[in-house]
């Protein structure tokens, strides 16, 4: 086993699958990965890919250089306490949980007078499943430059990575890109419903809506123009787009998006208080 790249996912659900899909075969082999999950069906799925599995934390964990904690926030304390006896001196712990502070987690993993400082908080999103994720990272002061590079390379295999300074930064990333795919899917669903209401069939509406999102996103990524300029290019004076944008404006579309992000961020803060 290549210890430098050996990984353990604690929790083998959606997010672990999304990250592993980009890592296995590129940054590590299936045999470099251990998945701990109490759910037999989940373990069977991973074992089918050649990954080592276990139902609960055990001594196999200590040989894994990087642990990715990918359980629900409300289960993280119990999981951290169960994994703690298997920490090696050089284990790098990466938590993907929303709304669990680095202070709480480093306390659970460490000793009363010595919190675990080799800790990275990571906020990825589900497009990581196809190597197109967006991800925020923050590191405590026990993480070396080499370990930061390792985290950057691992997450960079599946996502655009930005580093933030603290837990507040991770909460901001959560409200934008962590939860963001759901906002986009909601918008696409609404476009499809609108297309069907105007007489297109399901397939036509879906195909046009997806191509529009993909095309507009690619254009925005590749263009040197501002988003406002690109928007204005679509908007003929007195035309159809202006009529549609007037409706968005009247309902304060930007305000609604901002309010939704405020709610996501407030929920992350409330979870941090609840789960500390
Ligand atoms: N989904 C997303 O878009 C994103 C999620 N996240 C974060 O990722 C984390 C995981 O979310 P997600 O992957 O969606 O959740 P899932 O429910 O898909 O995966 C969690 C897995 O952990 C298992 N599990 C439960 N208890 C334990 C335990 N004691 N030891 C090991 N495994 C356990 C669960 O089993 P069972 O189902 O039987 O309980 C489940 O298979 C969360 O903290 C979330 O905040 C972060 C960014 C984006
Ligand atoms: O909804 C959630 O809490 C998680 C965190 C970001 C995306 N899913």
TrEMBL record:
The keyword Oxidoreductase is annotated on this UniProt entry: yes
Binding, NADP(+): 10-15, 70-73
One biological process term in Gene Ontology: L-proline biosynthetic process
Gene Ontology cellular-component annotations: cytoplasm
Enzyme Commission number(s): 1.5.1.2
Residue ranges constituting the Pyrroline-5-carboxylate reductase catalytic N-terminal domain according to the UniProt record: 7-99
Enzyme class, first EC level, given as a word: oxidoreductase
GO molecular function list: pyrroline-5-carboxylate reductase activity
Annotated Pyrroline-5-carboxylate reductase dimerisation domain residues: 169-271
Compartments, record wording: Cytoplasm
Protein keywords: Amino-acid biosynthesis, Cytoplasm, NADP, Oxidoreductase, Proline biosynthesis
Signal peptide: none
Reactions that this protein is recorded to catalyse: L-proline + NADP(+) = (S)-1-pyrroline-5-carboxylate + NADPH + 2 H(+); L-proline + NAD(+) = (S)-1-pyrroline-5-carboxylate + NADH + 2 H(+)
Chief localisation class: cytoplasm
Pathways involved: Amino-acid biosynthesis; L-proline biosynthesis; L-proline from L-glutamate 5-semialdehyde: step 1/1
Pfam families: F420_oxidored, P5CR_dimer
Family: Belongs to the pyrroline-5-carboxylate reductase family.
Protein task: Catalyzes the reduction of 1-pyrroline-5-carboxylate (PCA) to L-proline.
Descriptive protein name: Pyrroline-5-carboxylate reductase
Species whose genome carries this gene: Allopusillimonas soli
